[in-house]
Amino acid sequence: MARKRYMIVGDGAAGLTAAEELRRRDADAAIGVFCDDPNPGYYRAALTNFLLGELREDQLWAVPPDFYAARGIERVFTRVLRLDASRREVWCSGNPAPLGYDGLLIATGARPRPPAFPGAHLPGVLTLRTIQDARRIVDTLRGNVQRAVVLGGGALGLEWTHALLERGVHVTLLERAPRFMPRALDAVASDLLVARLRKAGVDVVLGEEVARAEGGAHGGVVGLVTSSGRRIHCDLVASALGIVPNSELVEQSDVQRAENGAVKVDRSLATSVPGVWAAGDVASVEGEQLGLWEPARHQGRVAAANMCGAREQYSPGVHYFATRLFDLDFARVGEIDEAPSRRALVDFPRGTGHIAYRKLVIEAGRVRGALLIGEKQAKVRTIGRGLKRLIDS
Fold first, then answer.
1. pTM of the entire predicted model
2. Burial 235-244 (b: 16+ CB within 10 A, else e)
3. 315-318 — which CB contacts under 8 Å span 24+ positions?
4. Which residues on neighbouring strands pair with residue 58, listed in sequence order?
5. Cα separation of 130 and 112, whole Å?
6. pLDDT in tens, 292-315
7. What is d(CA 287, CA 281) in angstroms, rounded to the nearest whole number?
């Protein structure tokens, strides 16, 4: 029987997990991980912990140095340029001939959405997605950075705000929506977060967009002008405006993509063409994209199993999202949006000296969702995981 050839493009959470699962299921297969990042797999979600000084760089690596060699997995430093799904071949940079495969997993992740305003190219306008980005930011902060503007009030923007404050930088946080994370937080939770940020000395600006960035005599960014004409002086702009799926390699193929460029897959993680799967930040699973580490690992496992002939389904249960919002813990599980058939049970103690807000959403006598925000001792994430198990059961 011919030796199977499995190709994985990308070695983030989905790619690494898939490679390990493929080897577990097929001891003889040829497994190649193709990636254009010179560094082996690392925890992207922990890069802000590195900026905060909570982790050293050597603690960011997701796998030990011998991960690939110990499992007989070849890691190839290259960019996969194009897919010919009809021939089951890919073209890579620096390689004059195509490479064939029996099963292909697209786990290319995503890149930061670039700011589009005039002046976005100026030195000092930075994004954070790779370990190289994190090193560049740390080097920049070693200079005379006194004031920064963070663009975007999502989890990454809030973590950047926290890291910059810890390094003694005055921060203005600019969010174009009228409140923080409108698809994750309700109005009360957003107001609590705004109050906490302002108490820490952050200038919070909601409902405004950047019109342009301005450069100084030395060429770097020195300020932003908003759509209302407000001028904000700064030495650094931290852009956290979302992500763009890295799906260019399938542009000339029959692989179907969503409107935002994500690769469409079903619950088996299969794409629209035989022999090709997708997982992680690049994948849209029946219209859903989470951009989170654990769901990407779960998808990588399911995709690898199905590449080996299994018939597994990606069924994570009700969505659970937990993170740190500035220095507060946050968890959301299930549905928290209002509806005529639902009622909310709210626990919002006042005058305790601590920030705490918990909301359960009940429908037809059952918990449908929950939103929790509080300080570390409130064990928000532990309670959130318990509520997820309750709803799933």
1. 0.92
2. bbbbbbbebb
3. 315/267, 317/388, 317/391, 317/392, 318/369, 318/388, 318/391, 318/392
4. none
5. 10
6. 899 999 999 999 999 999 999 999
7. 12
